[in-house]
């Protein structure tokens, strides 16, 4: 492989048909994308890639085969894969291209009537031990109703089938198959859960385990109890079942409907929005001697969680959560082979190289965070269709890497400390 200017390898990758933007397979060097391959990153051998056109990959995703192993990647989009935004479809296709030939099945479940991917084809939606009444009756309400519907399918899928649950907005960068094989799938490994360490809690946009995991089973039981009698998560942060769990931290102030919403109120709103994360934190901070559960010790011993900021938010850290800046940098074209690199191009290159070398994924932020930052890279990719997929740009370099490259090493876990319990006693006893 030739060495590029500046000491970065250039990789002859996969041919791109720029008229319809479908990957057509390997071809000669004149026809391939020529993006720099950072140190610590390698091109995946062709035999381990699905390089078929997008339409054929989409057909597989939209018509999933029966579950036959624990190596499942679960996504959810309420109205079905076909209706997803193009940029999130590209995220999901990249997971499939890299993982399907390693034995993983990538599925996007939905609640669309008659869909082969309907959650009801995989789980009993009428079972109160699996879903709350509001889910079964379709009465979940609020501005983030569909996010909460997706929250409710995560643990049931993992508990029954195992594998990975990821948000459609998560771009996978690191070697998931290797991490799975060396942790939760290895009987000699102490690790039973994979996720991101989010200031001592877990990020619910990436969760992984084998079926029947005892930690996720307790998280799910608590989450169901929090939903009893509810059609939204509004006010859920104040439930007696969550007493002792700190609110989600945020220090911003926003204007909404002519009113000022300060940090204290925003913390409550964010904690309701990510109520699933609050339930997770309670189980991690629970000691129940009657049930034989020590959450702080379990978290320290059995959860492999990657630092969420470096591991999944690095573009935001580089740009100070300035979505417009991130969008503008990622939209820039790379300099021509012998061209001069501008200051902005240098910054964009450093962002992409850092993500490819140091991050396990990148979470495109949406939802409540838009109230705080107005714009995110994800929201702008959504609003400017195709902007994430223009050949020759830094965005496309990153996209190409997530489909066809992999990291040489696994990310280290950010180990949890054994904390003082938030609660002692039965999981569902109100305090």
UniProtKB/TrEMBL annotation:
Record GO cellular component, one term: membrane
Gene3D superfamilies, per the entry: 3.90.550.20
Annotated signal sequence range: none
Name of the protein this chain belongs to: Capsule polysaccharide biosynthesis protein
Lineage: Eukaryota, Fungi, Dikarya, Ascomycota, Pezizomycotina
GO MF term set: mannosyltransferase activity
Biological-process GO terms, alphabetical: mannosyl-inositol phosphorylceramide biosynthetic process
Pfam families per record: Caps_synth
């Amino acid at each position: 492989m030739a060495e590029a200017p500046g000491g970065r390898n250039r990789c002859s990758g996969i041919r791109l048909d720029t008229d319809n933007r479908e990957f057509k397979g390997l071809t000669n060097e004149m026809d391939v994308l020529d993006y720099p391959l950072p140190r610590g990153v390698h091109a995946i051998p062709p035999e381990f890639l699905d390089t078929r056109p997008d339409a054929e990959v989409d057909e597989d995703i939209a018509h999933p085969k029966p579950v036959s192993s624990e190596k499942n990647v679960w996504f959810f989009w309420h109205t079905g894969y076909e209706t997803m935004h193009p940029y999130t479809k590209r995220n999901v296709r990249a997971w499939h291209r890299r993982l399907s030939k390693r034995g993983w099945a990538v599925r996007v479940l939905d609640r669309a009537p008659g869909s082969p991917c309907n959650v009801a084809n995989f789980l009993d939606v009428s079972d109160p031990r699996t879903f709350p009444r509001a889910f079964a009756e379709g009465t979940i309400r609020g501005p983030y109703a569909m996010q909460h519907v997706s929250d409710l399918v995560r643990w049931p899928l993992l508990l029954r089938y195992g594998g990975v649950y990821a948000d459609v907005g998560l771009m996978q960068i690191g070697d998931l198959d290797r991490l799975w094989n060396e942790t939760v799938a290895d009987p000699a490994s102490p690790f039973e859960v994979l996720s991101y360490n989010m200031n001592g809690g877990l990020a619910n946009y990436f969760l992984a385990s084998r079926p029947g995991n005892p930690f996720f089973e307790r998280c799910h039981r608590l989450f169901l109890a929090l939903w009893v009698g509810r059609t939204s998560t509004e006010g859920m942060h104040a439930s007696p079942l969550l007493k002792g769990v700190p609110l989600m931290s945020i220090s911003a102030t926003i204007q909404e409907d002519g009113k000022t919403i300060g940090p204290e109120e925003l913390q409550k709103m964010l904690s309701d929005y990510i109520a699933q994360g609050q339930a997770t934190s309670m189980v991690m901070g629970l000691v129940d001697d009657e049930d034989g559960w020590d959450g702080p010790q379990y978290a320290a011993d059995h959860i492999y969680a990657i630092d969420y900021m470096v591991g999944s938010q690095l573009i935001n850290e580089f740009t100070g959560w300035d979505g417009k800046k991130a969008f503008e940098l990622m939209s820039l074209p790379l300099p021509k082979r012998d061209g001069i690199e501008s200051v902005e191009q240098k910054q964009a290159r450093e962002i992409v190289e850092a993500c490819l070398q140091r991050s396990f994924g990148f979470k495109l932020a949406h939802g409540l965070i838009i109230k705080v930052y107005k714009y995110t890279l994800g929201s702008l990719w959504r609003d400017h269709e195709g902007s994430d997929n223009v050949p020759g740009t830094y965005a496309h370099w990153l996209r190409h890497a997530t489909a066809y490259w992999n990291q040489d090493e696994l990310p280290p876990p950010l180990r949890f400390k054994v904390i003082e319990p938030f609660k002692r006693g039965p999981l569902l006893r109100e305090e």
